[in-house]
Amino acid sequence: MTIKRNVFKKKRVILMCFAVIALMAGVICYLYFGAEHIQQRIKEKIYAKVIEHEDELLEIVEKCQYEVALTSRKIENDGSDNQYESIYYIELNDEIISKTFRNFYLSMINKRSDGSVRFHVRDSIANILWDDYRCGFYYSKDDKPIDAVWTHKMDEEELEFEDLIFYGKYWYRTEKITDNWWFYETKTVYEYETHR
Predict the structure, then answer these.
(1) Contact in structure between 184 and 134 (CB atoms under 8 Å)
(2) Which of the two ends of the chain, N or C, has the fewest CB atoms closer than 10 A to its terminal CB?
């Protein structure tokens, strides 16, 4: 009786492991082969949330005029000559900022030298599967498109471009959400494995 029970338990454990592996493989295949569909859903959610929470976001833009960056991690020196004046957003004890980080799954909010404010959505498994895909949204004071990630100068009519960078190919696209608010997405295709 005990032997049959042990065999039954082992079969059940093996079956459960197989089901979990099959589920994970299915999710990964869906994410990889259905990337455009997933990207579209992410974009639609961000559009809807920006429109719904625009007043709160404008308050944060106003606060960013006094702070350089609000991040989910504190960086004072990255080991190079780059110094970051950043503030861990929880330390600010600001309900609107904390709620925005949670609602949009943000990793960072930062003000750029041109006065725009970028809201970077946290990286996920999608970044690994889709050529280092990243996205977010930004506030453009003069309501013109910008390259929110690098420093590529964009014309008013230019909403998408590809560029070669020192370790691969960089693709960027931006779309207007509503007045002064823009969505951005980017992919980096790495040429060298060491930079991944």
Answers:
(1) no
(2) N
Q: Are 157 and 148 in contact (CB under 8 A)?
A: no
At residue 133, the 3 state secondary structure works out as coil
**Cα radius of gyration (the chain):** 21
95: its two tokens: 């309900």
Residue 77 in 3-state DSSP?
Answer: strand
C-alpha–C-alpha distance, residues 187 and 196, integer Å? 13
Residue length of the chain:
196
Nearest by Cα to 121 from 184, 164, 177: 184
Residue 16's CB: how many other CB atoms inside 10 A?
A: 10
Q: Provide φ and ψ at 131, rounded to 5°.
A: 55, 50
Q: How many CB atoms lie within 10 A of CB 62?
A: 10
Structure tokens, 175: 């779309």
Task: Please name the residues in contact with 87: beta carbons below 8 A apart, sequence gap of 6 or more.
Answer: 67, 69, 70, 71, 74
Q: How would residue 191 be classed by pLDDT, with cut points 50, 70 and 90?
A: low
Q: Model-level pTM greater than 0.85?
A: no
Report domain extents, the chain.
39-195
Burial class (CB in 10 A: 0-12, 13-18, 19+), 176: middle
